[in-house]
Structure formats: structure tokens, C-alpha cells
Amino acid sequence: MEAQDPAPQPAGTDTGRGLGRRRFLGYVVAAPTLLVAAQVEQTALASTPAAAAVPSLPEPADLLDLTTLLTTAALPTSGLISIQLNADGTATFALPRAEVGQGITTSTAMLIAEELDIPLAQVRITLADARPELLFNQLTGASNTTVSTYTPVRIAAAIARQRLLAAAAARFGVPVSTLTTAAGVVSAPNGQHADYGSLAAAAASQSTIQVAVALKQRADFKVIGTAQQRIDALDIVTGRKQFAMDLAIPGALPTMVCRPPTVNGTPRSVQNLAAVQAMPGVTDVVTIATGVAVRAKTFGQCIDAVRALQVTWGPGTEDGSSDETVLQELKAAELPFAVPPVNLLAHTIDTTFTFAFASNTALEPNCAIADVRPGRAEVWGSLKSPIVAQAAIAAKLGLLPSAVTVHVTQGGGSFGRKLFFDAALEAAEISQLMGKPVKLMWHRTDEFRQGRTHPMSISRVRAVHALGQVLSFEQRHTSVATDFSHGLGEVLTALVAKLPVGDTAFSETIFGLSQQTPYNFGLTTQLLSEVDKGFNTGSMRGIYSPNVRCAQELMVDQLAAALGADPYQFRRQSLKDTRAVAVLDQVAQLGSWGRTMAPGTAQGIALHPEYHSVAAVLVEIDCTAQTTGRQIPDAYTGPRVTKVVCAVDAGLAVNPLGLQAQMMGGIMDGIALALSSGLHLSNGVFQEGSWDNYFYTRQWNTPPELQIVVMPPSGDTPGGAGELAVGAAMAAVACAYARATGTMPTSFPINHAAPLAFDPLPTSPPIPQSPVDGLTRAY
Amino acid sequence: MPQHTFILNGAPVTVDVEDDVRLLWVLRDVLGVTGPKYGCGLGVCQACTSHINGKAFNPCSVPVSAVQPTDQVTTIEGLPATVGKDLHPMQEAWLEYDVAQCGYCQPGQIMAAVAKVQQARAAGRELGDADFDEIRNICRCGTYVRIREAIAAGAKNF
């Protein structure tokens, strides 16, 4: 993305949008109502800005001069994203991204409301089906949605407003320059006015034409940068918001899969097929690549059938693997440092940090609906890489991609999981084999045991200092391989990522592009080494950052101690970027850094820059026995983070309220990763099988005090935010824990080495039965 | 096929389904009431939290045969009907604090919140930090702090 708004220019006559300003190209698409479009992530600049200026003439010259007419036949319209203005005054837009809670439907509606001068409530955002013609531009990941769509969506909305103005000028018989727009109405000085809906047809075009338009200046924003509540909030609190499993697709009955007892085991034979097929409610049982699928009248009867199945399983990809064996693999694969450990004049600090496997499961489990018929297929699911999903499903079914319709549904969380379309692929396979529509859902226990994990890794950091200066700071991150087979969302990239060499290059590229050392520490190097492709892995709200940055920040505290410096001041003096200094100062001040703390409690401070944004986090932690010894049934209590202060600079925050929500979620993830959330691998099986085994942050771990400050805009464009807070929060919690206990933690989560705090569920049958005592626990 | 009758969101319903099918699946798969969500089927995540005779419970952990014809089952869809308005004060507080992120756990969170306030009231006290710490509902988006704020605010209005 390039910067959008140039230096301020004198206002012109183009209804306040500056004649001399930079103009962007978009399209009015041939349609019976006003349909405007822009090329996503490829912001075309108009070549002749001045010539596109609107003279103050009555129609029809206005209409003609409004548009920089180019050829209509050869326009690359297939890659466009379009906004439609409807007769009822609403604007509709199908966003080619996945909404999974991060608030992009709301922020996108805000962009349209801003440039179109329309109330937010009149903007309708849906999620686009898989559109292979969009190529790279339908991947939801790397906190990139707002960054990449910020300008194209505004261009389309601005063109719509321009067309509506022209249509109104024609209707009123007055120059465009005399008209104003507000709240979905065009008004003339003589009192004439027309709402957008009444102009939608007149503003439409019979042929597709390219036009130029200027965008609002930041100083004129009325919507962007204001706190707006989620546009789907009412649907959510009334239970009306529909996720994939809530859709009523005719004939799509509940379906589940009986899965193997070890990671990626394979089904060999079923001993009691007829008996299971005869169970109450069961309609079909088929063997698929990943297990044995059952379809029934209710999910409860699917659970019964899955538990009843007697299956002979072949080996998995990690039978016999445990945390200890994987750790050995990682240590053996560590790359050497550039700077040797011994130097007569300098001091060396060299520490290795270990990070356990973690689960990126969302609360909405893997699920998808598939209706596969001869020659065609239709699939519904929350998919962050729908184009790759469409191609993979087509290949699996033996269909052309164009015969596979992929609908992107609202998602119940993702955290990286929905980059993968495991459930959609399974659902399609099952539907084809059964010849019936299926509503496939994973059981929670399968989510933890057979679902995607954030890979186990070790991060070794070596720093050399002399005479009060850090001379070198090197990091060697060694990780179980991260699966990037979703590529960049586009089919060809995904295929490259599947090649043995290509995959490694892809990982190294992502690591190099995303990881950084934000301090002036002399020679800094960071390298990634990967091992073992037998696990189902993926990103988890950040790819490498939380672990990489946690290791770095703990070392920064060690360096500060070695140099006799205050951790906050040491960071402040060493930071490269003034924006980072500003957020650090903010949390230090608001959080009263350095205040006297009681024994067993302490503060920690850290920051994390990523995707043109930066966040700082100050925490206070309570590690006293009274707190760590709290008794809550079936829970891990442990140390409690009692206070968090966060400051975030995301460039231009489109929706500060939504940005705060993203920071809050990231902070809860950081607390979990530092203290409690990890998977234990033993003999090819992840031991966790329930939310009462996998200790993600719960209310009893939630900090009673939380303050999140959104810094004033530091630029004209938004940066990424979805993953930003995790690394800073995890690192700050780890640093605080080290200070409170006097022992720097080197293995995460910190409770990982302790005896299991739960009894693991059996692996056969693979999923547990639902309890029957719910009424006795009513409150 | 056994028949089961109960009162759902104020109106009697009768379903033909086997005795041991948990109420969550009767609501979702048989009756098409999708506000209560599946998050584990183990009575752990609490995403399906609804009310039975005014008390919070997990329909994933109750066989349909355990529900009596006179039992009042209320899901998120039926919550406002209990006060005769479009929205319950707790739902209004949820909107005011913009609590939801993905929204998947939120129907269960709201139903738990209403019951938790009523439980504290029945014990003759207002809600405190210790009560919040008893709420087991998982929010994987991590919006716990806004949940606490909204519960405190919503409790003042009913």
C-alpha cells in the first residue's frame, strides 16, 4: 500500500474535495442501479488529475465531465470489488475477507459511510463467496484486512457519491458545485433535496466506465477515527447472528467423524458398520481419509455413533513422539550464532527459551456444510483462504473449480485456525461419498487432539555487552514446521508452498519479513530453523512473534540488570523508533512504572512493533501463595495478572473502540501463553481434550484492572492490529513474573513442567459422552 | 418414538426424539433454535447456557427425558420476553459496552450474567469480583473485561 493523502491542497470547487488533489481511478459498472467498483489492493492513480476536475456546468455536461472516460471493453473488471447503492437508500458491499470477530465488517462499513456521506446504519456488509479472479486479494491474515482495503473501498464509495451528486445536479438543473451531501441526502441551496435511494437508478450507467475521484482529507473525516459499536452487535446479543452450523440448508444433517487415537492416524477397517448404521437417528456411515464419518438426525446421535464405532487404526505421523523427543529434535536443529561466546573484553548472556505446543482452536469448532451433487458442489464455512479451499475441494471431488461454490459464513473466532479449511474439505468428501448434504462439526476433544497447533519451538538469544553498551544481540529460533499451505490465499502460491523447498523458503521469507529486533543493539541477527512436518500446525494470533518477542524482552531485562539500568529507561534509550518510545512512555506514566510493590508482586513492561503498528504493555502480577493457591474446581488459577495498561499506535485507527477490543483479546492471549495455555504431547497424543484441560484465560485469570489507550493518529493510513498485543502482553507478563519470583522463566507456559492438573480423557472412544447431570448444576 | 413436551420461550412444544438426546440437540437440530451454541458438549465451556425455570443451565448436559412438561426453558431468543421489552437490560448493557467480538459465546454469556445477578440478589447481596470469578463461560476472543463491566452496568437496570 502506498500513502493516500498528499500534503493539504487548497480547496477547489469539487464540492469541497480539492481540485488539485490526487485522484484515484475506479469504475461505474453497467447495472440498473448505481454500482461502483475499485481494484482491491491496487490503487490506480489518475494520470491527469486536473483534467478530471468538475466544471460548474449544468447537466448533461456534468455527467460527461465527471468521468474520465476510457474504453469500456477492455477494463479488468473481474478483479473489482463493488458497492451497490439501492433504491431503499442502503449501500451494500460484499467484503472479500472473513469476519471472525475482529470487526472488519464494522470498520469497512465506516469507510463507506465516510466517503459516501451515508449513515452507518444504512451500510450492509456481507462476506463474498470465493472469487478466484481476486487472486491474492481474498486472504484474511497477518492483520492485513484494513491495511489492504482502506483505499479501494473508499475510492468506490467516493465514486458513488460523485455519481449521486451528478444525478442530483441533472435533476435539479443546478451546477454540481452548489450541492452538498449529508446523511444520505443531496441538498441544493434553494432547498431542493433528494435522498440517495431516489437517485440510485439515475446515477447508474448503461456501460462500464472508468472515472477519477478524490478522497476526503483526514481533517474532514466524520466517521473514520470515531468509536463505533459493532454493526452486528444487536444480532449477536439476540442470538440472531448466524454461524455456519446455524444455517438451515435443506437435507444437511448433523455429521461427525470418528478420529484416530494418535495424531494423523488413518482408518484401516470398521468392525461393526452394520450395528452402527442401525443406531437411532443414524442415516449413513462412511470411511474417509481422516476417519469414519457418521451422519444422523442430531449431533447427539452422531456422538453416540462415533463412540460406538470399532475401528482398526493405522499409525499416525507422530506415534511415539512426546514433548521430550520434539525438544531433542529442536535442539539438534539449532543454527549457530555469528558471534562466538567468549570475548576477553565483553560479557555474554546466552539463554534458551522453550515454548510448548499451543492450540489455536476457536470457540466455534472446525465446521462446514457441504452439498455435493453430480457435477457441482456447494460449501458453506468460515474460510480465510476461500480461493485455495475452492481449488482443493474441486481437486478432491474431481470437479472444475468453477463447479464449486464456496460461501464464506460469519466465523466464531479464528486465531489462525480458519486459514485452513480442513472441515470444508472433509465435508465435501463425506457429502460426495454419502450422496447427501452434510453439516459437519468437529467435537471439542478432536479440536485439541487432532486440530491445528501452534508449533513447539525454542528460541535462543545471545547478547554481548561491554562498557555499558550492547554490542550484539542474536536470536536463533528453532521450531516445529509451521504449515503455510494456505499460501497467500491464491492457488499458485499455495502450490509453491507445498513443494519441499518452496515451503522452507516460504517460512524463511515470512520469518524474515515479520520478525524484528526493535532496539539498537549493535550487530543483530535473527534466523529461523524448522524441523518435523508430522504435526498439524498453523499460525496462532501471530506467526512467530509472541514467542520470539517474549524471548527477546526477557533478555532485554537481563541486559538491563547486567548494566545496572532500569528496564523501562533501558528500553527507552535503546529503541529505534520514536512511536515505540511514545507508547512505552504512555504505559510507564499511566501505570506508575517503578512504584513500590508488595513482596511476591511486581511490574513488567514490554512492547511489540508489527505491521506498521506498535503496542506497549505494562502489567502487575501477583505471585503470592495466597493467590496461586486459590481453589476453583477444574481450573488452573496460578499467578494472577492484577493490572494491565496498554498503549497502541496503529497509525490511523479506523475504529478506536474495535481496536481496543482487539488489544483486549490479544492481552488475554498473552496472559494465557505466558502462564497457562499449552498442550502436552505424550506418545503421539495431545493430552488436553477439554477447555477444563487447556487453560485459556478464564474469568478467574482476568486482570481486574485494564486500561487501553489508543494513541492519536501517527499517520494517514491504518496499520495492522489483530495480533499486535499478544507479543507485548506475553513478554510483559513473563518479565513481571521473573521480577515477582526472582526467577526468570525459560519454559512456557510457566505451568507446563508441573504435573498435569487434570486427568486426560481416554483416546478410545476418541470423544467423551455428554454429561446428564446438568440440572443438578443449575444456578 | 417417545414424545417430550416442555415450555420453550413461553410456548409449549412437543418433540419426537429418543429419551437420551441432550436438550441442546433438541433445541438446535430438531427445533431450529440456534441461539444456544455448541462449544464442547461437556458442560465446560457454557456456550449453550440457557435458563430452566429461571436458573442458568447447560442444555448439552441434560437428556430431553429429564425435562418435564411444566418446565420453562428459556434461550437467548426468549430472554426479553421475560420483561416484556424488545431487549433485556443485560442485552442493552452488552450493546452499550460493545462487549461482543465474534459473538459465538455471547448468548451463553448473557444468559449466565442474568442468572448470576439473580443468584446474588437471592442471597441478599450485590455482585462482586468473587461472583465474576465464578462465571465459567469461555470467551476465546478474550473480551472478559467488557463482560464484567456490562454485567455490573446491566445489573443496575433490572
TrEMBL record, chain A:
Do you know which PROSITE patterns this protein is assigned to?
A: TAT (PS51318)
Q: Which Pfam families match?
A: MoCoBD_1, MoCoBD_2
Which InterPro entries does the record match to this protein? Ald_Oxase/Xan_DH_a/b, Ald_Oxase/Xan_DH_a/b_sf, AldOxase/xan_DH_MoCoBD1, AldOxase/xan_DH_MoCoBD2, AldOxase/xan_DH_Mopterin-bd_sf, N-heterocyclic_Hydroxylase, OxRdtase_Mopterin-bd_su_IorB, TAT_signal
GO molecular function annotation? isoquinoline 1-oxidoreductase activity
Q: Does the keyword Ligase belong to this entry?
A: no
Q: SMART domains given for it?
A: Ald_Xan_dh_C
Every copy of the Aldehyde oxidase/xanthine dehydrogenase a/b hammerhead domain together lies at 238-317
Any idea of its EC number?
1.3.99.16
Keywords, A to Z, come to:
Oxidoreductase
Q: Which SUPFAM superfamilies match?
A: CO dehydrogenase molybdoprotein N-domain-like, Molybdenum cofactor-binding domain
Task: Output this protein's name.
Answer: Isoquinoline 1-oxidoreductase beta subunit
The species is Kitasatospora kifunensis
TrEMBL record, chain B:
**Molecular function per GO:** 2 iron, 2 sulfur cluster binding; isoquinoline 1-oxidoreductase activity; metal ion binding; oxidoreductase activity, acting on the aldehyde or oxo group of donors
| Alphabetical keyword list | Oxidoreductase
Q: Which residues form the 2Fe-2S ferredoxin-type domain?
A: 2-79
EC class: oxidoreductase
Query: InterPro entries given for it?
Result: 2Fe-2S-bd (IPR002888), 2Fe-2S-bd_dom_sf (IPR036884), 2Fe-2S_ferredoxin-like_sf (IPR036010), 2Fe-2S_ferredoxin-type (IPR001041), Aldehyde_Oxdr_Iron-Sulfur (IPR052914), Beta-grasp_dom_sf (IPR012675)
Q: Which domain of life is it from?
A: Bacteria
Q: What is its EC number?
A: 1.3.99.16
Query: Would the keyword Oxidoreductase be found if you checked this record's keyword annotation?
Result: yes
Q: Return the Pfam families for the record.
A: Fer2 (PF00111), Fer2_2 (PF01799)
PANTHER family according to UniProt: OXIDOREDUCTASE WITH IRON-SULFUR SUBUNIT (PTHR45331:SF2), OXIDOREDUCTASE, IRON-SULPHUR BINDING SUBUNIT-RELATED-RELATED (PTHR45331)
What this protein is called in its record is Isoquinoline 1-oxidoreductase alpha subunit
Q: Which organism is it from?
A: Kitasatospora kifunensis (Streptomyces kifunensis)
